[in-house]
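In this supplementary section we document a worked example of the pipeline. Step one takes a protein sequence of length 418 as its only input; no multiple sequence alignment statistics are reported here. Step two produces a three-dimensional model, which step three serialises into structure tokens for compact storage. The input and output of this example are shown verbatim.
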Amino acid sequence: MTVQVTRLENGLTIASDRIDGVETAALGAWVGVGTRHEAAEVNGVAHLLEHMAFKGTARRNAQDIAEEIEAVGGHLNAYTSRENTAYYARVLADDVPLAVDIIADILQHPSFDEGELAREREVVLQEIGQAHDTPDDIVFDHFQETAYPGQALGRPVLGRAEVVRGLGRDTLVDYLARHYRGPNLVIAAAGRVDHDRFVALAGEAFGGLPAEAERPDQEAHYRGGEYREERDLEQVHLVIGLPAMGIRDPAYYTLSVLSTLFGGGMSSRLFQEVREKRGLVYSIYSFTAAFTDGGVFGIYAGTGAAQVGELVPLVGGELRRLAEDAGAAEVARAKAQLKASILMGRESTGARCEQLAQQLLIYGRPLPVEEIVAEIDAIDVAAVRELAARLAAGRPTLASLGPLNGARPFEDLARSLA
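The serialised model returned by step three reads:
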């Protein structure tokens, strides 16, 4: 294994994955807090903070940050999710010190200039508005809120417009000070990087972070139910979900295989039965949304108003059928797809860096690829059938958006799963 991990006295984890034969390195800081760690009255603060980190520090203004990284041919980006926030870069190997310095600067010394904040708040509001105008995007927010109502886990990552408008500088400063601390951070790199040199760089840049940290996780309570919204669109957008296991659960790999088999590609059951044989959709796929202590198995489909009544019970019936007749050939094919995706991803410095950081946040250790492959290889037909039956027995969540015209997809789904 090419991975090395060092933990500093302040709780900061520094990890590297050396890849010989490349000239670049991907690196970044992964912070173990996200939308899930926000109170309702500041929903969206994690995402707004991610935006504001690039808007200037005591040493650099926003233009300086962009010009310095691009002057060496690198790029810098970030994202916010429900359970973590990431700031990452890809550069030539010789420019790793610069990338570490910039990321450390924007995370520890953002200026949060009031003028920049006013402008960036408007940018985020535009982003929220764009999401609301994109039905196959916003339907997932409605789905999440219906699955986890009244909980941080059910709130939108972008935040709610009425809340974001009120987020001020003091709120950002407080959130940063409370959460961006040593035990909550993983600094990771993959590519042509020397571990000891990387530890020295990251330790000097981040060693001053406080050693005490809080991560107030609210326990996930899946509820399920229906969200429906009549909207004048060409299609009805549907997200169907059922309670599943978290990413730390031993059955998570079985869930990944099942999802691949059910709706993960052109050979999957949903694609073949729903699109190829019946022509009910252009787009249909299954997915897993796994958190540290729970998750959902879901299906997205976009279809015509006249097809909803046929599509929804067909999807439910296919899941019930999977519990009875999942076959060895399709399970083997799904396992091969999943393993190939994992192994192909290892040819990317960015993917390996991301995977390493996420594993350390979730499991507290890097997972050797051989261990992951062995877990997938051990999955058999009986395990897939048993899990399909377990999923079908759960209380469903269904979010629908579009010209429903009196269709009752939630009731249709419930009957098909009974």
